[in-house]
Amino acid sequence: MSEKKTLYKLFPEPVFHYKLDNFEQHNKDLLVYIYDLYEKDNLGIQRSNVNGWHSKSFRIADKNSPAFAFFKETRKYIIDVFKIYGWKYEPEKVKMTEMWAIINKKNNLNTAHTHPNNYLSAAYYVKAPENCGTIKFINSNSVAKERFPKLDQKTELNQNAVEIAPKEGDLLIFPAYLSHAVNRNLSDEDRVVISFNIDISK
Asked: Is the Cβ–Cβ distance between 97 and 199 less than 8 Å?
């Protein structure tokens, strides 16, 4: 076989994986903030969560709040994502549309879902004990899941789902249309995550 070949990896689905600077202090402050919200409203709202607690949207107008400090810290990572994508970054047009927290206790999970009407979504791990539930990203190409041959080995070209085991301080940023789920928390501790969405105004 000729060695002259070119492989075009067309239309990749990126997941950007960062470790937040100063995550220990952010997490300490965020845990107090999130559990305070939980104590005031332990019913939360129902979205993709199965038995877990999903907060209402954060109100981060208070510039002294841990949520505001956290979002301010994430801006440099959002800018980096725009740079890698090759998108034009205009600060006045890049908006955080919503931010919320999820607490998954033992056996809680989140079903597969997307975040429509946004460009980017993010998951940040405030508390992530071992076996607390991986985040699973699902191939958005539905046709690829209709006919699937027997695998000889796993490669990046033949996976219809990829799981990432979270660590505290991890920040994942990904296309808002990319379907994702959270597997069951098998630990005896809470799994605490903050998520947010990014849109670009016209």
From this structure: yes
